[in-house]
Design brief:
The chain has 198 residues and is an alpha+beta fold. Helix content is 36%, strand content 27%. The strands form two sheets. Strands 2-1-10-9-8-7-6 form a seven-stranded mixed beta sheet. Helix 5 packs across helix 6. The protein is globular. 36% of the residues are buried.
């Protein structure tokens, strides 16, 4: 299972494993009925890039834990298993298909965070190697990890839903700014997740 695979690499995913433990995410996820999934797994480095203040808020405050749960839900696309060369759609919204190796393809995956979707672009080079970008800027550093219940893609940045109040195209600019500086402002984090926190 994907959770077990992640737990085998604590040197890379100890922050994510701590996040799962802090909000009892394993119990939550076992209550979700899924036929396959795509799990975007932020590495320890990805969490570090959020910055010390954002991590302290997420992991060490009662309010922050609610936002942390929303973030973790945003990293899982249920009933849709996406690899660099194949897509198995069990959501009822599309069809399963091979990924075209000759061009860039875009997939819009529904997440466990309600109406918040994740955009995935897969591009295959002339040599047959594939690159994956998530939400236009996060790179997948390790793709196509296999789990009994879906696909694993390791990210270099924690995914945060785009702010609903920005014009189309502004989201990437703001995310790039946070990515480059290595810090995410707590107010910005709250604003982006405000509509998704329970």
């Amino acid at each position: 299972m994907i959770g077990r695979v992640i737990s085998l690499f604590p040197s890379s995913f100890s922050t994510l494993l701590l996040a799962y433990e802090k909000i009892n995410f394993v119990e939550y996820i076992h209550g979700v009925r899924m036929v396959g999934s795509t799990v975007f797994v932020p590495s320890n480095t990805a969490f570090a890039r959020l910055g010390i203040r954002a991590n302290a808020f997420l992991f060490n405050t009662e309010t922050g834990l609610k936002y942390l749960k929303a973030i973790l839900k945003y990293h899982i696309a249920p009933n849709a298993t996406l690899y660099t060369d194949a897509f198995y759609d069990k959501t009822g919204e599309g069809e399963s298909d091979d990924v075209d190796a000759q061009e860039t393809q875009h997939f819009d995956l529904t997440t466990l965070l309600g109406k918040a979707h994740v955009g995935v672009d897969i591009a295959t080079t002339f040599a047959g190697f594939s690159t994956i970008r998530v939400n236009g800027f996060s790179h997948v550093t390790i793709a196509d990890g296999l789990g009994k219940n879906g696909a694993i893609h390791v990210l270099d940045k924690v995914l945060i839903p785009p702010c609903k109040h920005h014009k189309h195209g502004d989201e990437d600019r703001d995310d790039e700014d946070a990515f480059i500086t290595g810090e995410m402002d707590i107010a910005e984090l709250k604003e982006r997740l405000a509509g998704y926190v329970e």
